[in-house]
Amino acid sequence: MSTGAARVSPGRGPSRRSDVAPFIAMDVLAEAARLEAQGRDIVHLEVGQPGFPAPLAAREAAIEAARQGRVGYTEALGLPRLRARIARHYADWYGLDVPAERIAVTTGSSAGFVLTFLAALDGGARVALPQPGYPAYRGILHGLGIEPVAMVTSEEQRWTPTPEDLQAAFRTGRLDGFLVASPNNPTGTVVEPGTLRDLVAMCRDENALFVSDEIYHGLTFDRPAQTALSFSDEVVVVNSFSKYFCMTGWRIGWLVLPEWLVRPVERLAQSLFISPPALSQHAALAVMDCGSELEANKAVYGRNREILTKRLPQMGLPRFAPMDGAFYAYVDISAHSHDSFDFTQRMLREIGVAATPGLDFDPDLGGRFMRLSIAGSSADVEEAMDRVSRWLER
Residue 88: enclosing H or E segment and its boundaries? Predict the structure, then answer.
């Protein structure tokens, strides 16, 4: 697993904006695949990907669309029927009236972040990000010439940002935006509704863009997560069909935008992406009515959560973030190592269990942590725990 810099061609080098830190989870996946090609038996707990395929109805919808030849360009903001169906989703899940005209279908949530920051912020802007957090946020912002500003959270505050944290960040200098994920990756923690309301209000008062990453909505275990749209029409919500809807490789997501941002996003989407993938849009339209199958998948994640809650303390790993939602365990490994990169590399090579080092999510304190993804089968999770338990005993 290499983290070295790319070789520079004579007389010409890559752009400064391309000098982003590697997405280590993807490097771990590549290394695990290399070992599997050599015949090793690997248990995958490294990537945030459901272990289930897209529901059958979604796959059949894509096949039928392909059979009928409905695979050309669509509108840049997505199929009108899909935008309308997403609008109905907000009525069904949250009791909110969100106009379809404010919804943009995107090529995964990744394109949603790119479009949002390009449309709303100029180069040199500063955006606060809770830490630990999804590493691609930093990479996207850096690549766009926007400065990510780390907002450190702690175990004592359940790894969630507080209004006091945001207020302190505003005092350190100009902030043009704030991005929060609830449930969070890697910790799985959910921001309390009252806290979310206060964070939204503070950004409004400071004239800062509020971006809410809600791609793990639907995947909470005790109570639903609150959408930031409950508190303001001026926030940007980023969502995706990848997690709850089990469509990672289909690369399809959506934005809910303030009215003033819709046309700028549309213009950029026309040039950058032309349109989201047509087949994926037809599948996404169908998947939104597959609730029974999706809830059955979620029940497996819940069982896996119970397995880890029981097994980790027995293995001498008693400290981990509250698994309110998503499908991760952010585990404190400091009793065994303060170098999570080395720890997870050894775990992969010696016992065939792939996990992501906490340094991917927190460049400062992540050496003490690793993230386990529990989105696969319960049998795989139990097998991984057995292997790690025996390894730690040695």
Answer: helix 80-94
Diameter over CA atoms, the chain: 60
Which tens digit of pLDDT belongs to each residue from 127-171?
999 999 999 999 999 999 999 999 999 999 999 999 999 999 999
Residue 48's contacts (CB-CB under 8 Å, 6 or more residues apart) are: 25, 185, 243, 326, 327, 328, 373, 375
Determine the Cα angle at 320 with ends 298 and 138, to 5°.
Answer: 80
Q: Is the pLDDT of residue 5 over 80?
A: no
Distance CA 82, CA 46 (A): 32
Please identify which residue in the block is written with the tokens 């999706």. 294
Task: Give the pLDDT of residue 6.
Answer: 54
Q: Strand, coil or helix: what is 270?
A: helix
Buried b (16+ CB within 10 A) or exposed e, 254-276: bbbbeeebbeebbebbeeeeebb
Distance CA 327, CA 140 (A): 23
Nearest residue to 16 (alpha-carbon basis) of 132, 125, 144, 176? 144
Report the alpha-carbon distance of residue 16 to residue 290 in Å, rounded.
44
pTM reported for the whole predicted model: 0.94
Q: Which amino acid is at 191?
A: V
Q: In angstroms, how far is CA 182 from the centroid of its own chain?
A: 10
